[in-house]
C-alpha cells in the first residue's frame, strides 16, 4: 500500500516544474512593419518635335526597260562587241544591224514606180497639149465645113446642086463634128487620168517612205543610256519580225515598290494631310498633287557589311493593287542617277533585284509628348506623383511609331513617367524615382528619326 503512495510525489514535482517553466517564458517580440519602397527609372514628359515615318521593304527595278524588237526581218550582219549582259552602253550606240538587202530592193522598186508615174504624167500633159491644139484646128475645119454646107444648101434650092451631093456634104459635116466631139471627150478624161496617176504616185511615195523607214529599222540603237540585261542576237542569225534581240535597263532612274502596312501608311497619310484637305474627295487628276502636298521625303537604305548606305528618293505613285495576304500597300519611289553618282567601295548603285528598305517621312510635328511603348500598359501610364507614390493614369494615344508612341491626352509636360517594369503595380505604392536622362535624349533622337544607340 505504501509503495503505491510513493508514485504521486514525483508526478506532483514534475507538474510543479512545468508550471514554473511556463511562467518564466518571455512573450514573442513584436515589430512595426515598414512600408516597402521600389526603385524605378523615370523620364520627365516634355514637348518634343516628332517626324512621323514608316518603313517598308522592296526590290529595286529600273525606271525604264527597253526591248529591241525586230521590225524588219533579215539576217543579223552586225553585233556590237560590247553587247553583253551587264555592260553599260551610251545613248545612240548602234548595237545590232540587220541585212538591208530586201529593204534596198524595195526602195529601188518604189523609186522606179515613182519615175514611171512621173513619166506617165508628163506624157499625159503632152497629150493634153496636143489634143488642145488639134481641137482648135478641127473646130476651124468644122466651121469651114458648116459654111460650105450652108452655101450648097442655097445652091440646092435653086437646083444647081443635086440631092446626092447635098447628102454627101451633110455626111462629111457630121463626120467632122464627131471628130471634134471625140477630141473634146478625150480632153475631159485627162483630169481624171491625172488624178489617178497622182494618187498612184502618192502610193509609191508612201511605199518609198516605208522602205526608207524599214532601212532605218535595220540599224538598232539604244534610245538612252542603259545597262544590258539580256542578249539573244548572234551573227548570221535570221531575225524574225516580233522577236526580241536585246533587253536593256535604263540607268537614269531606279524604282522600288516598298510594301508598307496599310494601317501604318494610313496613319502617316492622316498626319501628313493638311487640315484643309482632310476628307476631301480624290480624283484621278489630283492624286499627284495630293501626294506632293503631303510633303513626303523618302530615303532608300541598304546595310552593306554593317555600313549604312542611303539614297534620296521621291514618291512616284502608288501601286494599283493591295496585297491582301500581308495587308500592305505598294508605294513606288524613284531615285535619280544612282549609277552616275556611284562611288566604288563607298556608294554602290541601285542595281536591279537589290532588296532595300524605304523610309517615308512626313513633315515635322512640333511640341508632342512622346513616351516609349514599354511605358504604356493597357492604355495607362505609370506616373510618380508629388508624394513619390505610384499613380496609374489613363491616356489617349496618337501616332504609334516603332518603339515610341504619342500621348494626346492624359499626360502633361513635366510629369514623371515610370519606364521600369513594376510587378505588381499597385496604385499609391511608394517609389524611389531615378531620372534616366540618357533615355530622354534617346527618345528625342528616336522621335526625329535619328539613329538610336539602344532599344527604348
UniProtKB/TrEMBL annotation:
Residues in coiled coil: 107-134
Alphabetical list of InterPro entries matching this protein: MdtA-like_C
Signal sequence annotation: 1-21
Pfam families on file: RND-MFP_C
Highest taxon in the source lineage: Bacteria
Transmembrane segments: none
GO molecular function: efflux transmembrane transporter activity
Keywords of this entry: Coiled coil, Signal
One GO CC annotation: efflux pump complex
Domain Multidrug resistance protein MdtA-like C-terminal permuted SH3: 367-422
Protein name as catalogued: Efflux RND transporter periplasmic adaptor subunit
Amino acid at each position: 500500500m505504501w509503495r503505491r503512495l510513493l508514485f504521486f510525489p514525483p508526478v506532483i514535482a514534475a507538474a510543479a516544474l512545468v508550471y514554473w517553466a511556463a511562467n518564466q517564458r518571455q512573450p514573442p517580440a513584436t515589430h512595426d512593419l515598414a512600408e516597402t519602397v521600389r526603385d524605378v527609372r523615370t523620364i520627365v514628359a516634355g514637348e518634343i518635335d516628332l517626324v512621323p515615318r514608316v518603313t517598308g521593304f522592296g526590290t529595286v527595278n529600273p525606271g525604264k526597260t527597253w526591248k529591241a524588237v525586230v521590225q524588219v526581218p533579215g539576217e543579223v550582219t552586225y553585233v556590237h562587241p560590247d553587247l553583253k549582259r551587264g555592260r553599260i552602253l551610251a545613248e545612240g550606240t548602234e548595237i545590232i544591224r540587220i541585212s538591208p538587202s530586201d529593204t534596198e530592193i524595195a526602195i529601188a522598186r518604189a523609186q522606179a514606180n515613182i519615175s514611171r508615174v512621173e513619166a506617165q504624167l508628163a506624157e499625159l500633159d503632152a497629150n493634153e497639149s496636143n489634143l488642145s491644139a488639134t481641137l482648135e484646128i478641127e473646130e476651124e475645119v468644122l466651121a469651114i465645113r458648116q459654111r460650105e454646107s450652108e452655101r450648097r444648101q442655097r445652091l440646092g434650092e435653086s437646083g444647081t446642086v443635086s440631092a446626092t451631093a447635098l447628102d454627101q456634104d451633110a455626111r462629111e459635116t457630121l463626120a467632122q463634128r464627131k471628130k471634134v466631139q471625140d477630141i473634146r471627150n478625150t480632153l475631159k478624161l485627162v483630169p481624171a487620168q491625172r488624178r489617178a496617176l497622182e494618187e498612184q504616185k502618192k502610193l509609191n511615195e508612201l511605199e518609198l517612205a516605208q522602205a526608207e523607214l524599214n532601212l532605218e529599222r535595220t540599224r538598232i540603237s539604244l534610245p538612252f543610256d542603259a545597262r544590258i540585261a539580256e542578249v539573244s542576237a548572234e551573227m548570221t542569225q535570221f531575225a524574225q519580225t516580233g522577236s526580241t534581240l536585246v533587253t536593256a535597263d535604263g540607268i537614269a532612274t531606279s524604282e522600288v515598290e516598298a510594301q508598307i502596312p496599310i494601317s501604318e501608311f494610313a496613319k502617316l497619310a492622316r498626319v501628313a494631310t493638311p487640315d484643309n484637305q482632310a476628307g476631301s474627295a480624290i480624283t484621278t487628276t489630283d492624286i499627284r498633287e495630293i501626294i506632293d502636298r503631303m510633303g513626303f521625303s523618302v530615303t532608300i537604305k541598304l546595310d552593306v557589311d554593317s555600313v549604312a548606305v542611303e539614297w534620296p528618293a521621291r514618291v512616284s505613285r502608288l501601286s494599283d493593287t493591295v496585297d491582301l495576304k500581308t495587308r500592305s500597300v505598294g508605294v513606288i519611289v524613284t531615285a535619280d542617277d544612282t549609277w552616275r553618282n556611284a562611288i566604288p567601295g563607298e556608294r554602290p548603285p541601285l542595281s536591279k533585284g537589290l532588296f532595300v528598305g524605304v523610309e517615308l517621312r512626313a513633315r515635322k510635328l512640333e511640341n508632342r509628348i512622346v513616351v516609349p511603348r514599354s511605358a504604356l500598359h493597357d492604355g495607362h501610364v505609370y506616373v510618380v506623383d508629388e508624394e513619390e507614390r505610384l499613380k496609374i493614369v489613363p491616356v489617349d494615344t496618337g501616332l504609334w511609331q516603332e518603339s515610341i508612341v504619342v500621348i494626346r491626352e492624359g499626360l502633361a509636360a513635366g510629369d514623371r513617367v515610370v519606364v521600369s517594369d513594376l510587378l505588381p503595380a499597385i496604385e499609391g505604392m511608394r517609389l524611389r524615382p531615378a531620372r534616366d536622362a540618357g533615355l530622354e535624349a534617346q527618345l528625342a533622337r528616336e522621335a526625329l528619326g535619328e539613329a538610336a544607340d539602344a532599344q527604348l
